Structures are given as structure tokens and as C-alpha cells.
Predict the 3D structure of the following.
Amino acid sequence: MKKKSKVLLAASLAAAVSIVPVAASASSIADKVEAFLNSKLEISLNGAKQSLAPLTYDGKTYLPLRDLADKMGFGVEWNEEKQSINLTKAQADLSLSTSGIMTSLTKNEGHYTAEITGQGLGEKGLNNVKLTVDASTEIIDLVNGKALKLEDLHEGYKVTAFYGERLTKSLPPVGHASKLFVTKQTVPVHGTIDKTAHPMDTFIFQVYVNGLGDKEVGNDMILTVDSYTRIMTADGTPVDANDLKDGMKISGYYGPAVMLSLPGMSTADTLIVELPAK
């Protein structure tokens, strides 16, 4: 993919120099040509569709340099005196981080929006944050050390997200993910708590989750809750295990190992519950 990105960037640079008028003296370095706007051509960067305006000239495709550079995290500097363009790579803003579950993942044109609920790291990290994940986001699977594409992400992945302090004042705050480390691939089940089993010992008990809140056993899961299970509300507020009650709305994240029974059984990594109004 890096090779493809370099090709696109080179094409863009050529377009900026040979097609786009820069200044009054541009005639000394650029020739006037006739090109065609190829709006039907789909451009993707790291697998994500991009809103770019490709031009076709002499059998080659050219892209606007600044638009593409912005999407790749590059700055564009124009030197009038030297009639030259310099591309600069901005340093990723890693000042804040959150470790938690990707509780929702929305696909948009050219990027995804991921909501992450868990534990803010450091003094300023947030327990609950929405982050734009795009072609400039470095995504790494820490289990095998491989780079991931946008389309490899799924709801339920356990991640550590790094982002900057430029956040909206909404709830949850919205920002941009500079890096996203996938630490575990869990599976979600959404529904209500049907019942909690008597403690198996001091730290372990089981929660029966009625998936989708229906009568279909195949949608249900029996989740073992132990001392490593995180239990919290949607905004990341910790919840005591003793506060889990029948009828509560719950999203359980478990696995990837599952016992092949009916309903399935697994160990809960994270439980996100809706507490009753006080």
C-alpha cells in the first residue's frame, strides 16, 4: 500500500507543477494542457474511499496535491522564489490515550468513526471518546505486529487509542486517532441480564445475557465474570459487580475463545451496563 501511496503522491506532484497555475511566472516552468475531469474514477487510500477530483491527461491520472497530502498527513509548502514544492510530514499527536473497547464503529466516506469506552491513560486521557480513524491513522495489531487497514476494524476490538488535545466539547468528545493499537479481538453481545448465578467463589460468577432481548437461545451468552473483567457504564464510569441486576441492559464483550454449547459460554473481558435512573 505504501508503494501505491507513493505513486499517487508522485502523480499529484506532477499535476501541481504541470497543470495547476502557480504564479505569473509559471509559464516558464509549466505548459498549458487540456485535461479531463474523471469524476467516475474511484480513489482509495489504504482501502478507504477518498473525495478527490482526478484529472486524466495523456493516459495518466493526476490528483490535487494539497488535498491528497492533507489526507496522508503531509504539509505542503510552496516556495515562490525557487518555484518549488516541499512536502513535510507532521508529527503524530499522541498526547492523550484511552485503553478500552471499540463499542461502535461507523463507516463514512474516507474514514471511520470509532467510539471507545474504557480507561483514560495518564492525567488527561478520557474514559469515553469518539475518534475519526482515517488513512493517516497508524493501525497495528499488537498480537502479531501487523499493520491493519480500515476495513479490518470491527466493533468489539479491544484497543489503545492515541489522540491529541483538539477535541470537541460534545459528549463524548470527538477527536482524531493518530495511532490505534489492537490488543485483543473480542466479540459483542447486546441484550439484557436474565439472571446472575450464585458466586462460584469470591471473585467469579456468571451472567446470563439474553441477546437482543428475545426468546431465541442462539442469541444468548453465558459470560463468566472474574477479577479481570471491566464493568462500566457507557461513559466509562466503573460499576461494582454487586450492582449487576436482572433486567439491566448490557453489552458484553468476550472471547475470542467460546465454548460450543447452547447458549455459548465465554469469559467476559468487558461489560457495559445501563444503570437504572435514580
Notes: The radius of gyration is 24 Å. Confidence is low (pLDDT under 50) at residues 1-27.
